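USER:
Make up one protein:

ASSISTANT:
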Amino acid sequence: MSSLRPLREDPPVLEEWYRRHLGPDIHDISSSGVHPYTFAEIRELCRIPAEDLDAVVMDDSVSQGGAGIRQAIADRYADGAADRVLVTHGSSEAIALTLSMLLRPGDRVVVQQGIYHSLGHYPRAAGCDLAELPAAAVRDGEIDDDVLESLVRPGTRAVIVNFPHNPSGATLSPQGLKALTERTAAVGATLVWDAATAEIAHRWEVLPAVAHDDMVSYGTFSKTFGLPGLRVGWAIAPPELITAVFPLRDRTTLFLSPLVELIAERAMRQADVLIGTRAAEARRNLAHLTEWMAEHEDLVRWTPPEGGVCALPIFRELERAAAGPAAVERFCLELLSRHNTLLVPGTAFGAPHGARLGFGGPEEGFRAGLAELSEFLRTRGAAR
């Protein structure tokens, strides 16, 4: 072990937190995705008979993804243009491959505040000059005009955003997304949009799929489809960028299993069913969460999420004390220890006084987790 080279940076807080603390028989109200389907449910809902599974030849696939799954993704998100689709091991691989090819040292890159760790890691690792899009600049479905103009200026290489935002749930309206795409195009920048939860909207209609030549977007089966264990994601990007990633992919993961691609293709063709069922449940949970927040407004404040299935409540006790990052981690560990209930501390997202609270799980389990959190907060309040 002594011969191993030291890591250049620590593991992401989010992944390390789950690695240490996610386990069976807990109230997990921390997730940014809907709860997963069983394989039996997927076979029924997506009409996958045993004969189709038996007919799969366990041969190699291809670097860009098999023709069937690429076309299914393209038909839903890329106007049928399968040559613009790259199928990957989760969206994390899509992010790694495309950003590694797109960015160079010294590039000016705008990155959204509190963005998912992978989306911020690769610009930093590439030695880019980073500018931050403040969370406060995203209001009423649009980015403040002055902020948009000053940040996305000529010479900007890329603008990297995640809407609906994980974990706050803030998002753009279709008009707001149109303004952003037009501004990035006007200055010659590439818009990089992580659209992992774009298909679940609460305030406006679902954001439209955008497949412009100067844009890269990411998707995944993990968040709104209820298939995190499938480990399939994708990038929609200019064909020349997809071709540029092949040398790296050919030396790492190569391609997906044809068995996985078959399941993913059928799931994509039944996306409305899979997403619709879980989205309806998430909206019922959100209604309950809204009532819960009102009942606990002396202890917690929040901005209601406009999309996705998670929120970022701020705990007034920590905010009043101007507590440092370690305090919210102790808070979440105490909640887990005393009430068997899991949240993700805001230190994973640059929010030291809050935590990610997910409402995409089963209704009964979600309500039980909120009840435990309520008891925890009231007990802490009484003790003080």
The longest strand covers residues 156-162. The radius of gyration is 21 Å. The chain has 14 helices and 16 strands.
